[in-house]
Amino acid sequence: MTAPLEPWRVLDSRDAYDAEPWLKIRIETLELPDGRRVEFHQVDQQDFIIIFAETADGRALLLRQYKHGARRVSLTFPAGAVDSGEDPLDAAKRELLEETGYVSDEWIGFGDYVMQGNQRGCVAHMFQARGCRKVAEADSGDLEEMRLELLTREELVAAAANGEFAIISSLCMLTLALQPELARALGRPVG
Amino acid sequence: MTAPLEPWRVLDSRDAYDAEPWLKIRIETLELPDGRRVEFHQVDQQDFIIIFAETADGRALLLRQYKHGARRVSLTFPAGAVDSGEDPLDAAKRELLEETGYVSDEWIGFGDYVMQGNQRGCVAHMFQARGCRKVAEADSGDLEEMRLELLTREELVAAAANGEFAIISSLCMLTLALQPELARALGRPVG
After folding, report:
1. How far is CA A2 from the centre of its chain?
2. Which end of chain A is more exposed for a tag (fewer CB within 10 A), N or C?
3. Binary contact (A7, B71; C-beta < 8 A)
4. In whole angstroms, what is the distance from residue B169 CA to residue A110 CA?
5. Does B21 touch chain A (CB under 8 A)?
6. Does A25 touch chain B (CB under 8 A)?
7. What is the pLDDT of residues B80-109, one digit of tens each?
8. Is the C-alpha dihedral spanning B61, B64, B66, B67 positive or negative?
9. A172 confidence band (pLDDT: 50, 70, 90)
């Protein structure tokens, strides 16, 4: 029988750069299972939610906006930071309403994934919202000018082929939601 | 006709924290299309490649390892940093050999995606390698103890359902490679 893979032990953490809530850099001193000690930078960013939201007639809610991280215009799914102390599902409901003016009564959770395997960054909470309906005008309060587009499955695939998804979280949301086996395997009703 | 979405202009960039090559923090002064000026933190991390590598009999090459960013053991696809000045495809071939001992003569590129829509982080270059064959013993030189596992499609889906993928780049690689329409739409032979 193979021995289990052991976690690394955190011996020390010291702050290196603090621009909270946006960003904090820490240096951790870690002990590996074989006894070696190493220093690792850890990047603390804000956890976020991202939503594959679709209407009853099967159109997905996409936002087209300039995203400075990508240095270009990209299609993105509704997404946003989880406020301190906020439940991720509550954040998803809030962001969906703010960014699109839509609400849903049928939410699926696809799980939580860290952005960086070494430096962590933050956690992405991935959701699907079905049967979305418009109840208000969008009012995101974000810096970006966002344009809401309701796209069919065929239009989503064509947009991806055309390079209109620039950011990995939106690409992952798209590929997961459109891969039925994995969507079923990972999806859990969450309210 | 709708006006195009305008990019933000970078008026200034100043270094805030430097731990290159691992990490650099900059503060950019940006001008929005409406004339407002804002400051944005930018995180410069190392670009990386990630590979859905499969053998001629359709088994994917996975690594099981403790990943400190996730604080737990995770399945990951072969991946690694692109060295300074290195071509991403060359980095992919190098990392595949180092981490698994396998090589491939049939490479597909799925495109490049930024990790963070606001703070950028780095770019993930996503590849598929077909018909992989073992030519050497793995010798990654990484800190992590890695265990190579060759998984069928059914085993990949079961592992995902069991929460064994902790990191978004590996989840995205999995869902993209297993979604035939999107894999076809995004894939380009690259050598």
Report:
1. 35
2. N
3. yes
4. 15
5. no
6. yes
7. 999 999 999 999 999 999 999 999 999 999
8. positive
9. very high
How far is residue A34 CA from its own chain's centroid?
34
Kindly state the tokens that stand for A40: 């690792």
Strands B37-44 and B120-134: parallel
* Chain B residues with CB-CB distance to A99 below 8 A: none
Show the DSSP H helices in chain B as ranges.
Answer: 88-100, 153-161, 168-177, 180-186
Q: Which domains, ranges and CATH numbers included, belong to chain B?
A: 9-44 (no CATH), 48-189 (3.90.79.10)
Residue A29 C-alpha from the chain's centroid:
28
Cβ-contact B44, B24 below 8 angstroms: yes
**Residue B81 touches chain A, beta carbons under 8 Å:** no
The structure tokens listed for B103 are: 């090589």
What is the spatial distance between Cα A174 and Cα B166, in angstroms, rounded to a whole number? 18
Residue B128 burial class via C-beta count within 10 angstroms: exposed 0-12, middle 13-18, buried 19 and up: buried
CA-nearest of B46, B112, B118, B175 to A119 is B46
* pLDDT tens track for B143-162: 888 999 999 999 999 999 99
Q: To the nearest whole angstrom, how far is the Cα of B163 from the nearest Cα of chain A?
A: 8
A17 at interface of B, judged by CB pairs closer than 8 A: yes
User: Which member of B8, B70, B116 has the closest CB to residue A114?
Assistant: B70
Q: Mind spelling out the 3-state secondary structure of A29-67?
A: EEECCCCCEEEEEEEECCCEEEEEEEECCCCEEEEEEEE
Q: ipTM beyond 0.90?
A: yes
Cβ of residue A141 closer than 8 Å to a chain B Cβ: no
C-alpha distance across the termini of chain A, in Å: 41
Count of CB contacts below 8 A, A vs B? 204
Cα B130 to Cα A56: distance, rounded to the nearest angstrom: 39
One-letter amino acid at A186 equals: L
d(CA B88, CA A131): 41
Indicate the pairing of strand A48-55 with strand A120-134. Answer: parallel
Distance from CA of A26 to the nearest CA of B (A): 11
